[in-house]
Amino acid sequence: MSVAVLGAGAFGTALAITIARGGTPVTLWARSATHAEEMANTRQNSRRLPGVELPENVTVTAEIGAMSANTLLLAIPMQQIAGFLAKNGHRFASGAIVACCKGVDLETGLGPTATISAACPGAVSAILTGPSFAIDIARGLPTALTLACRDEAAARRLQSTLSTETLRLYRTTDTTGAELGGALKNVIAIACGVTIGAGLGESARAAVMTRGFAEMQRLARQLGAQPETLSGLSGFGDLALTCTSEKSRNFSFGLALGRAETFDAGKTVEGAATARAVARLARQNVAEMPITSVVASVLENRITIREAVEALLSRPLKEE
Fold it and tell me: Which residues form the Glycerol-3-phosphate dehydrogenase NAD-dependent N-terminal domain (predicted)?
């Protein structure tokens, strides 16, 4: 089975590297022809993963027409998927398309697999998500992820194709739960970053993580997800990693917000758009999500960090 990775950012490159090390030929697509040529010549993605060599069986290209594999990993930001597939989806009418991003589309409110299915109804849609940093995967450090696909037979095939000695995939048919876990934890990670950045302490961060996890479960149940999915790698596992490490862009973004510092505008922060999209979903589904709501309000400059803290601390006392 052939594999192609669309998107030569850190995560897409890391997946290409680890899958190729397992012996499967991989084609890696970069949006920029200059970037593709640079990687092909140096055998590194020095812009995103410096110091990690590309295996010989990774072919780098900027030609979208060359992406003809029967398993496509879509490693581009969530907010770009709909536009990308509207332009290129006809090229991927069949086979399997696996989203490797986390979030909710701001315009449609759809997750990755529904966005893929809308653009490519003949393809099998799936999502690969869970607690992982690109550099860990690229270096061959042990990592476990969730592979979610509603087609059980396809999920088994993808699990076999994409698992390696160091990348262990657990499958589920609950795409809703896997998507929401990956999307919502980014919002809570921003809140945790703000908490630490504003000097509120480790105990406050633990409280934000715990109550944030309750929010994640609440909305997931409302939207039909299985509770156990949120307790797994794509929910609790990803939350624990993202809320506690400065390697996380979402946590680091929140940290900069809390410290009133500038954040690198060139880095994609999926949780920023997701917070606004999920706050809207919560209102539509009458789901109580106070942390998500204040994060969205802060990002839209409707309230200050101090006002956000006051809003959360002044909420009525209740049973856990």
Answer: 3-154
